[in-house]
Amino acid sequence: MPRTRPAPALAALFVPALLLAGCSAGPGDAKNPAKNQAKTPQAAARATSGPRIQVTAADGQDHVSVTRGGRVTVAGGRITEVSLTTADGRAVRGGLSSDKRTWTPDAALEHGTTYRLTAAAADDDGDRKATKKITFTTLAKNDGFAATYTPENGSTVGVGMPVSFTFNRPISDKKAVESAIDITSSSGQPVVGHWFGAQRLDFRPQDYWKAHSTVTVRIRLDGVKGAEGAYGEQSKTIRFTIGRRQVSTVDASAHTMKVVRDGRTVRTVPITAGAPSSTTWNGQMVISEKLISTRMNGATVGYAGEYDIPDVPHAMRLSTSGTFVHGNYWGPDSVFGHSNISHGCVGLNDVKGGNDSGQDAAWFYDHSLIGDVVVVKNSDDKTIAPDNGLNGWNMAWSQWTAGSAR
């Protein structure tokens, strides 16, 4: 998070107080008969209530957000003075809004620092005034938690893409954290979260996203207590777009992959799947990563010494455990569409270097999005675990919703 270097100014901000009106002539004012008329109900209410100062911390509060702490707002009047200093007297610079109803520090406050805040305001006529003084301490840097998430803001993804959060600390108050994340779709599909353990939270609708819809993710974790000594600091809104609907079905026994886009079969590709000793998972898998070329070493997935290929072309990840759909240039052409020889991946015909756009692997890579679905069936293996990659679609909706903390 950004940090503030307090300015050496002697005072944070002083706004000249509004000038008071002239003295009253008493119950009646012969020089200004209009002032003798009864005030409207709205004016009477303002005169009774006066300015109301609101700050983003309570007096004596700890663990205050470094991004929201120190903000001042006023209803029913205007700010006349704000002073925000550290406990040792260092002033914090800030800015006043054009309507003089909001004051905000110029930058994020320091972590683990005690501040003194004094704010003064007056009503629009300058007749009634209010002052608020508080002391608060910001969140210590080691007491924060953060989340990485996918997909990225502004991206276009396939219909199977969940919204997945991974937290850097275990979360015990799952309800508070999940409730601070709101996800909506222009399609109107309800979206529900599911916890995989204490550090991963995925969201998805009951069925795949509607093609060409827009998904909005509002993250309001700043100040949320996720566990003892763990408070969130993120507050942002991201949006991503769902592309066309593409679902490709791999039939491991028929050695084919049928690519269906928006309800129409656009290509049937010969493939090679996992050999009998290293079968491919069944189930619905989501492309989570695209790599034009990557190294694949059997040692990383339990096949030490069996293969180490430094330049696998057109690789698209389907699982965390190492399942890919990728180009294969080392197998003879005769295996594609006829035999299963891989170590669990789905292989498509390709050339070394991957520079032939006419190859099946190159075509599929070029026509796939992160978030597209690849379904594998008729493999002599079990269904992939829902948390092995972004593959929560392999969980029944009733089970998925049961994993929500809301």
UniProtKB/TrEMBL annotation:
<dbReference type="InterPro" id="IPR041280">
    <property type="entry name" value="Big_10"/>
</dbReference>
<feature type="signal peptide">
    <location>
        <begin position="1"/>
        <end position="21"/>
    </location>
</feature>
<dbReference type="Pfam" id="PF17964">
    <property type="entry name" value="Big_10"/>
</dbReference>
<keyword id="KW-0133">Cell shape</keyword>
<comment type="pathway">
    <text>Cell wall biogenesis; peptidoglycan biosynthesis.</text>
</comment>
<protein>
    <submittedName>
        <fullName>Ig-like domain-containing protein</fullName>
    </submittedName>
</protein>
<keyword id="KW-0961">Cell wall biogenesis/degradation</keyword>
<dbReference type="InterPro" id="IPR050979">
    <property type="entry name" value="LD-transpeptidase"/>
</dbReference>
<keyword id="KW-0732">Signal</keyword>
<dbReference type="Pfam" id="PF03734">
    <property type="entry name" value="YkuD"/>
</dbReference>
<feature type="domain" description="L,D-TPase catalytic">
    <location>
        <begin position="246"/>
        <end position="377"/>
    </location>
</feature>
<keyword id="KW-0573">Peptidoglycan synthesis</keyword>
<keyword id="KW-0808">Transferase</keyword>
<keyword id="KW-0012">Acyltransferase</keyword>
<dbReference type="InterPro" id="IPR005490">
    <property type="entry name" value="LD_TPept_cat_dom"/>
</dbReference>
<feature type="active site" description="Nucleophile">
    <location>
        <position position="345"/>
    </location>
</feature>
<feature type="region of interest" description="Disordered">
    <location>
        <begin position="28"/>
        <end position="51"/>
    </location>
</feature>
<feature type="active site" description="Proton donor/acceptor">
    <location>
        <position position="326"/>
    </location>
</feature>
<dbReference type="InterPro" id="IPR038063">
    <property type="entry name" value="Transpep_catalytic_dom"/>
</dbReference>
